[in-house]
Amino acid sequence: MALMGPVAGHAQQLGLPEAPILTISSDRLFSESAFGQRVIREIEAEGAALAAENERIVAELSREEKELTQKRAEMDPDAFRELADAFDRKVQSHRDGQRAKLEALGARGEEARGTFLQLARPILVALLHDSGAGVILERSSVFLSSDATDITDIAIARIDAAIGDGRDLEKPKGK
Any idea which GO molecular function terms this record carries (predicted)? Predict the structure, then answer.
């Protein structure tokens, strides 16, 4: 127990809880950090641009479909079928392309979250060491705990101080 006193006193001096088990909300850690907020803003902006592009494509395809329908009465059925089949392929191609873009956007979010956790790990290890605790548990997985053991706010502050919004720390994307 003599060892616990100095460690606990050290934790208290650093504003950390004096507990053998700490909790953290990884969702809040990401979403409230400068890094996470930047990524969320970027993904929301890209998502809005994708939605606008999709609306433009839908309007264009609707116009083409209307023109194709108007031509139907004056066309040979086989010639019309060829145009209709080509139009269907074009629609499917656009759907596939937009779906792929949406999936890539989701993957980018997951990749950014993984990068964030990788960058945050040494900071969380230092928090664990500084507090003298033996473990940090995910808050949502804990049935009952005191709010005093939650270090999410402290972790966010330390991560923000160490990596900021992380813009300069992520791997450059091949564009």
Answer: unfolded protein binding
| pTM (predicted TM-score) | 0.78
Residue 173 lies in a domain: no
> What is the longest distance spanned by two Cα atoms in the chain?
96
Residue 74 has phi, psi (to 5 degrees) of -100, 10
Q: Which residues of the chain have pLDDT under 50?
A: 1-8, 174-175
What residues have CB less than 8 Å from 65, skipping those under 6 apart? 87
- Residue range 147-158, pLDDT digits in tens: 889 999 999 999
In a domain, residue 171? The reply is no
For the chain, the domain total comes to: 1
H, E, C per residue of 37-79? HHHHHHHHHHHHHHHHHHHHHHHHHHHHHHHHHHHHCCCCHHH
Task: Say how far apart CA 159 and CA 145 lie, in whole Å.
Answer: 24
